[in-house]
């Protein structure tokens, strides 16, 4: 039963991520996705123990999977068959926030939620809750961030 629940959770998470393809960003640039779940406990998948937004920076602590992506075209941004560039078990990493950074929430099979404000997004980050955290980074600058259920 636990395996079925885990599989269902993973399937739901992956299927909701495909919606993110609709973003309009320069497809020629190199973008990377940093992926992890907001969880205060040990997870068998990458987990971000703490994520904080302060001024123009985002700091993550925990583990993550990093992979290259193209956004703004028909290629899938969040897919099961992604080529992982690196996996880090323990890290503390700080990114700059773009002046035009967008924060989104995705739940179930629904569309992207209207963008979160920085304050709303930060309030969710303060309470690790098992949501997926995906940040899209270009040249060490966060251009988009997603919270996914």
Describe this entry's structure for a reader.
This protein has helices spanning 2-17, 118-125; strands at 31-38, 47-54, 57-69, 84-106, 132-138, 141-148. The chain is α+β, with helices and mostly antiparallel strands and 149 residues long. It has one domain (2-148). It is globular and about 45 Å long. The two termini are 20 Å apart. Residues 18-28 have low confidence and may be disordered. Residues 1-22 form the signal peptide. Keywords: Signal.
Low-confidence spans: 18-28
Strand content: 35-45%
The number of helical segments is 2
Helix content: 10-25%
Number of domains: 1
Mean residue pLDDT: 70
Q: Biggest sheet, in brief? A: 6 strands, mixed
Beta strand count: 6
Q: How much is the radius of gyration in Å?
A: 14 Å
Ends distance? 20 Å
Structural class: alpha+beta
Overall form: globular
Order of helices and strands: HEEEEHEE
Features:
alpha+beta; six-stranded mixed β-sheet
Give the topology:
Blueprint: H1 2-17, E1 31-38, E2 47-54, E3 57-69, E4 84-106, H2 118-125, E5 132-138, E6 141-148
Short characterization:
The protein has 149 residues and is α+β, with helices and mostly antiparallel strands. It has one domain.
């Amino acid at each position: 039963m636990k395996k079925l629940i885990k599989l269902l959770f993973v399937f739901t998470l992956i299927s909701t991520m495909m919606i993110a393809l609709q973003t309009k960003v320069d497809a020629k640039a190199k973008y990377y996705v940093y992926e992890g779940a907001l969880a205060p406990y040990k997870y068998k998948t990458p987990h971000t123990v703490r994520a904080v937004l302060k001024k123009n920076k985002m700091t993550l602590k925990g583990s993550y999977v990093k992979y290259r992506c193209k956004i703004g075209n028909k290629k899938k941004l969040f897919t099961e068959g992604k080529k992982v560039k690196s996996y880090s078990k323990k890290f503390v990493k700080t990114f700059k926030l773009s002046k035009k950074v967008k924060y989104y929430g995705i739940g179930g099979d629904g569309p992207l939620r209207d963008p979160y404000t920085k304050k709303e997004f930060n309030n969710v980050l303060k309470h690790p809750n098992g949501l997926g955290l995906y940040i899209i980074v270009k040249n060490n600058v966060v251009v988009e961030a997603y919270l996914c259920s």
